[in-house]
Amino acid sequence: MNKIIGFIGAGNMGTAMAGGMIKSGVIKKENIIFSDVNEKSLEKVKNNLGVEITTDNIEVGSKADIIILAVKPNLYKKVIDEINDSIKDSAIIISIAAGITVLNIENYFGREIKLARTMPNTPALVNEGMTALMPNNKLSSEEIEEIKMLLGTFGKVEIVEEKMIDSVIAVSGSSPAYVFMLIEAMGDAGVLEGMPRDKAYAMAAQAVLGAAKMVLETGIHPGQLKDMVCSPGGTTIEAVAKLEEKGFKSAVIEAMRVCADKSKKM
What is the DSSP letter of 198? Predict the structure, then answer.
């Protein structure tokens, strides 16, 4: 892709996204520019990725064909007010902020813009992200495919309706935290049984990774995959029975329900 990609904000998520784009070969590092008020963050990005940097958001706004707003949600209006007059009419804006709707952003600009609201999650840092994509009606099908290709450089992408955002946050955005808790608990159990902690975490994390790939790559229902591991009268069904007794699935469902409810109130 021979376009200039501009990142406003040089935090972990923006850096991870740019890293995925460069590593994939979709974008050359020479075609990426970052701006941030924090010069140390900019120098870190330059050293790690070799991209152009600036402290001037307007420079990014005027140069970039695709502008990724990678700042905190409370800074969106300030940044948009700053760059609004400098961006090209053809520029595509990509938002990665939770809690700021397509309509909010369109109102901040006060004019018609090409906009894609996205919700990536932290595994983007290791190129295994899950990003929800919510384009506005000013984007063509070709432009949407272009955005999908960019976002796909650091994980998987699903187009969803914006009304689904609260469930997206519960199922994808916040869920790495639940999985980290599961891995931590599995590791603690391994230590309790006499395993060194580093080996316990490594084995637990790999089990989660492998199980997730089986769901994604086989297309088999998770319940069926669970049954495949449970031999009659064996160790696994004993553990599964105890998880059911302790309300494992209902606890996960309830946690995600309150997560979605919290998102609705933000």
Answer: H
Higher pLDDT, 85 or 264: 85
Backbone φ and ψ for 181, nearest 5 degrees, come out as -65, -40
pLDDT in tens, 108-156: 999 999 999 999 999 998 999 999 999 999 999 999 999 999 999 999 9
Place of tokens 């949600």: 73
Residue 12 CA from chain centroid, whole number? 11
Question: In sequence order, which ranges of 25-155 are alpha helices (DSSP H)?
Answer: 39-49, 57-63, 76-83, 102-109, 141-151
Q: Would you say 37 and 61 are in contact if contact means Cβ atoms under 8 Å apart?
A: no
**Does residue 228 surpass a pLDDT of 80?**
yes
Nearest 10 degrees: Cα torsion 173, 175, 179, 184: 90
Pick from 139, 140, 143: which is nearest to 151 by CA? Answer: 143
24 exposed, middle or buried (CB, 10 Å; 0-12, 13-18, 19+)? middle
Residue type at 35 in one-letter notation: S
Q: Has residue 266 got a pLDDT over 80?
A: no
Residue 14 has pLDDT above 90, yes or no: yes
Q: How far apart, in whole angstroms, are the C-alpha atoms of residue 226 and residue 204? A: 16
